[in-house]
Design brief:
The chain is an all-alpha fold. It contains three helices and no strands. It is elongated and about 55 Å long. It starts with 5 loop residues before the first helix and ends in a 13-residue tail after the last helix.
């Protein structure tokens, strides 16, 4: 049995990224947009870890940890914005609330 090669992980990452792009472009819900962005970040992580495993250096794993930290911070900030918008507009649809007035 030969196992999984680099191409398998690259195809998986491409499918994840394409799913994320479709989710971002087709969804009108703020939560759906966040899920799409998270899918795209996870696709980047799969690529980074695959190349880390393939080349044997730790650079890919270190960058993957930074991407995970970035995704956590992005999710926290974006969810707080979505909750603020929902509190004022009573909807999380991006069509209903297009302007952010301070």
């Amino acid at each position: 049995m030969s196992g999984l090669g680099l191409n398998h992980f690259l195809v998986l990452a491409a499918l994840l990224f394409a799913t994320g792009v479709l989710c971002v472009t087709l969804r009108r819900n703020a939560i759906g947009l966040l899920i799409g962005v998270e899918l795209m970040l996870n696709a980047a992580n799969v690529n980074l870890v695959a190349f880390h495993r393939w080349h044997g250096n730790v650079d890919g794993a270190v960058f993957a940890v930074f991407v995970i930290m970035l995704a956590a911070a992005e999710a926290a900030v974006a969810l707080s914005i979505v909750l603020h918008v929902f509190h004022h507009a009573a909807s999380i649809s991006t069509d209903d609330y297009t302007e952010m007035k301070g």
